[in-house]
Amino acid sequence: MNIDELKNTWNADDSFEEAPQISIEQKNKINLPLEKVRKNMHKEFWYTLVVFIIAFFAVLSCKTFKLQFYLSVLIVSMAFVIGFFFSKFFKLYKEISNTEMSTYDSLKDLLQQFYLNKQYYISFYLSFVPFLVCEMIIVIEFIPRPKPLSELKTAVLLIGSVVIGLSALFLMGKYWFHRFYGKYIKQIENLMTEFKK
C-alpha cells in the first residue's frame, strides 16, 4: 500500500463524529436553570454556616463541662463530614460557573455531574445518622428525670429514634434536593431532549 492509498483510507474513515453544537439561544435557555442551581448552592452553604454558628452558641449555654465537651466533639466531627461533602459540591459549583458549553456532549457531562452529586447529596443526609445516635445518647444521659429509664425503654427509645431519624433524613434529603436542584435539573434534561430533535 502506498502513501496515497493510506491518505485515502484515513480520509474515508469518518467514524469520528463531531458532537452537535449548541446555539446561543439554547445556551441562554440552559443558563437560567444553571444560575438558579448556583444561587441555591450558594444559599445552602450560608444556611449551613449559620446553623453551625447557632449550634456553637447553644453548646456554650450548656451548664456542665462534660455536656459542653461531648457536644463540641460532635459538632467538630459534623464539621469534618460537612467539609468533605461541601468540597464535592464546590467542584460542581465551579463546573456550573463555567457556562461555556458549546456542544451537546458537554451538556451531557454536566448532567452526569448532577446525577453524581444527587447521590452525594443523599449520602450527605444519611451520614448524619451516627450523629443522630450520639445526640440521642447524650440526651438520654444528660436530661434529668425523676425516675431513670429502664434498659428496655432506653433501647426502644434509641432504636426508635434511629429508625425514625434515618427515614426523616432520607426523605428530607430527597425533598430538599428536589426543591433546590431537582426541578432545575429536570429543565436541563428537557432542554437536552429538545436538542436531540
Summarize the structure.
With about 200 residues, the protein is an all-alpha fold. The chain contains six helices and no strands.
Describe the fold and architecture.
With 197 residues, the protein is an all-alpha fold. 83% of the residues lie in helices and 0% in strands. The chain is built from six helices and no strands. It has helices at 3-12, 24-60, 65-97, 104-126, 129-142, 151-196. Helix 2 runs antiparallel to helix 3 (65-97) and helix 5 (129-142) packs antiparallel against helix 6 (151-196). It is elongated, with a radius of gyration of 25 Å. The two termini are 42 Å apart.
Q: What's the gyration radius in Å?
A: 25 Å
Report the β-strand fraction as a percent range.
under 5%
Name the helix and strand elements from N-terminus to C-terminus, one letter apiece. HHHHHH
Determine the mean pLDDT. 78
Q: How would a textbook summarize the main sheet?
A: none
Distance between the termini: 42 Å
